[in-house]
Design goal:
With about 120 residues, the protein is α+β, with helices and mostly antiparallel strands. Helices cover about 20% and strands about 25% of the residues. The longest helix has 10 residues. The model has no long low-confidence stretch (mean pLDDT about 95). The protein binds iron/sulfur cluster (2 copies). The site of one iron/sulfur cluster has 14 residues, from helix 1 and helix 3.
Length: about 120
């Protein structure tokens, strides 16, 4: 009998300030979920270049995780990391317990924390 890994208290922390916009996470996810054209489990968005309040320039990428994401349940059950985390060369994505990841957010400049929660 296989025991399914519970993902309700798991998540992915993305330090998007260091995201290079390479789209490797997006490509790996599409392959993992076998999604059709136009649908994504994670989609890399871009902001800028745009001026900030201080007359500086802002330009960054923000990988946004969608409702297709199941945190790569099959990979987790096999003891592997989610495909997006595994394929991020810049190492800006971290998988783990939501509470532990949330603690890290207090000392990271720009980051987002995704968790699928209990949704079905
Ligand atoms: S955890 Fe898996 S399903 Fe979720 S965004 Fe990453 S690659 Fe896609
Ligand atoms: S693989 Fe990493 S660096 Fe590349 S777009 Fe995704 S989050 Fe950003």
């Amino acid at each position: 009998m296989s025991v399914s890994t519970s993902i309700s208290n798991k998540g992915i922390l993305i330090q998007y300030d260091y995201c290079t916009g390479c789209h490797a996470c997006e490509v790996a996810c599409k392959k993992e979920l076998d999604l059709p054209k136009g649908e994504f489990g994670i989609k890399v968005m871009e902001y800028g270049p745009a001026k900030t309040r201080n007359d500086r320039w802002d330009n960054f990428f923000l990988p946004a995780i969608t409702d297709h994401c199941n945190l790569c349940q099959n990979r987790l059950d096999a003891g592997k990391l989610p495909a997006c985390v595994h394929n991020c060369q810049a190492k800006v994505m971290e998988y783990g317990d939501v509470e532990e990841l949330a603690k890290k957010m207090t000392y990271i400049k720009k980051c987002v924390l995704f968790s699928p929660g209990d949704k079905e």
